[in-house]
Amino acid sequence: MSEPTLRAAIVPVTLFQQNCTLLWCAQTNRGAVIDPGGDLDRVRQAIAQTGMAVEKIVLTHGHIDHAGGAAELKEALGVDIEGPHEADLFLLQALEQTGRGYGMMDARNVVPDRWLKDGDVLQIGNQSFDVLHCPGHSPGSVVFVNAENRLAIVGDVLFAGSIGRTDLPGGNHDTLLRSIRDQLMPLPDDYAFICGHGPTSTIGRERATNPFLV
Fold it and tell me: Tens digits of per-residue pLDDT, 113-165?
């Protein structure tokens, strides 16, 4: 069996225990920090432990626990931010205000260097990810799919045994179910995914057992 060409490390951050994911190309050692919501000392320590060279920050959507630390980390590392979809601009422009409500006083508003839309390609080292726009949890949520390693990064769209909440501003339950049905369920069963909270899973397992999808 060939060695995987992608490596990942998950760093739970913030009081929401959000899965900040370090994802790097095994061939080049270049990687991305996905959804640095906060606790940046912990994130930087994990980066040092992996030895990866961060080339960008990537956001799946604009909620505080995913994006609150992006502006500060961008300044510290001197890299660009890519994603989410532009429909989440209103969330990214309210991060400071939202953070104060949760006692996350370090959160800063942010605008990415590159918005992502459906059909775009996200590049991490030598690895390419197809960008899928999956609104419903938030209007601008995006998912990243890497065919070579059969891996998806799904943010808060889909979870092991659950789906994203839709009671926050811009959320819509029917829209989320449509995104999952049209964008994620066509993926083969053996695709693993890393979500924004909790354990990883596979598309096949969720197709067969997720109570929101069965």
Answer: 999 999 999 999 999 999 999 999 999 999 999 999 999 999 999 999 999 99
What is the rounded distance in angstroms from the CA atom of residue 158 to the CA atom of residue 32?
21
Both tokens assigned to 1: 């069996």
Judge whether 124 and 24 are in contact, CB under 8 Å: yes
Which amino acid would we find at residue 70? A
- Asked if residues 141 and 88 have their Cβ atoms less than 8 Å apart, the reply is yes
- Give whole-number Cα distances, 3 to 49, 53, 67, 148, in Å: 20, 20, 32, 11
Give Cα separations from 83 to 49, 93, 124, 171, 173 (angstroms). 26, 14, 13, 18, 22
The answer to whether the CB of 124 falls within 8 A of the CB of 31 is yes
Superfamily of structural domain 6-209: Ribonuclease Z/Hydroxyacylglutathione hydrolase-like (3.60.15.10)
